[in-house]
Amino acid sequence: MTLKPVTARPSARPTPSGALALALAWPLALALAACSSDGQQPAPSEPDLKGENTMAPLVVESDAFKNGQPLPRRHTGDGEDLSPALRWSGAPAGTREFALTCDDPDAPGADPWAHWVVYKLPATLSALPEGVARDQSLPALGGALQGRNSWPSNNIGYRGPQPPAGSGAHHYRFRVYALSAPLDLPAGATRAALAKAMKGKVLAEGEVVGTYERRGTKG
Fold first, then answer.
1. Residue 136 in contact with residue 189, Cβ under 8 Å?
2. Alpha carbons 100 and 195: distance in angstroms, whole number
3. Which of 20, 81, 140, 143 is most enclosed, with most CB atoms within 10 A?
4. How many domains in the chain?
5. Is position 188 within any domain?
6. CA atoms within 13 A on the CB side of 86
7. Under 8 Å CB-to-CB from 8, ≥6 apart: which residues?
8. Is residue 102 part of a domain?
9. Is 7 inside any structural domain?
10. ∠ at Cα 123 (175, 51), nearest 5°?
11. Predicted local confidence at residue 21, as pLDDT
12. 61 Cβ contact partners less than 8 Å away, ≥ 6 residues apart
């Protein structure tokens, strides 16, 4: 039996409708080529978590400690329990008042432990001295008011870190808020009440964070 060589037949020319289909397929092929190598479309970028507040943050600093570094003992419950000196800059135009909080997000419980709540600080103020008095009203600071910390007694003004021994380093966030309007809030307010009163009024904010750890056995 003799095998005859097979001659390849020329492919058929695409019909007009086939040509149209090929033309429409090219953009899809190009889009697919732009996908990642595993064939998945690139993930969308993260949403802007800043919301409408696009102003530059306030710069908050202290001569007592550097950001992310330990607080000196004098500013803790194991020392003299004095509030540290703070200063801030970069307040935007339209700032009417400042507010300040210090809290510990590492404390046990659902909410951060409040160490300091201060508000109605005049817009002309840009610093706090060391050792602010534990009074509800502060005439020396333009009539600023102080709220309650998380301690059950003696809870007006600053109370320094004194975390449970053996619980590791806790972080203490000193946050300053630039507000677009004066707050209608009486003295002795809680951290939660201040947050509610500031809603919709924060133009900019900034923080400096100190750490503190009490050595020992937990519990």
1. no
2. 11
3. 81
4. 1
5. yes
6. 30
7. none
8. yes
9. no
10. 50
11. 43
12. 67, 86, 87, 88, 208
Q: Is 194 helix (H, G, I), strand (E, B) or coil?
A: helix
Q: Indicate which CATH number applies to the domain containing 198.
A: 3.90.280.10
Handedness of CA 178, 179, 180, 182 (dihedral sign): negative
String of b and e for 13-39 (b: at least 16 CB within 10 Å)?
eeeeeeeeeeeeeeeeeeeeeeeeeee
Q: Does residue 206 sit within a domain? A: yes
- In this prediction, residues 18-45 reach a mean pLDDT of 40
From CA 195, how far away is CA 201, in angstroms rounded?
10
Could you tell me if residue 81 is left (phi over 0), alpha (psi between -120 and 50 degrees) or otherwise beta? left
Residue-range definition of the domain harbouring residue 106? 59-212
Per the document, the length of the chain is: 219
pLDDT in tens, 108-153: 888 999 999 999 999 999 999 999 999 999 999 999 999 999 999 9
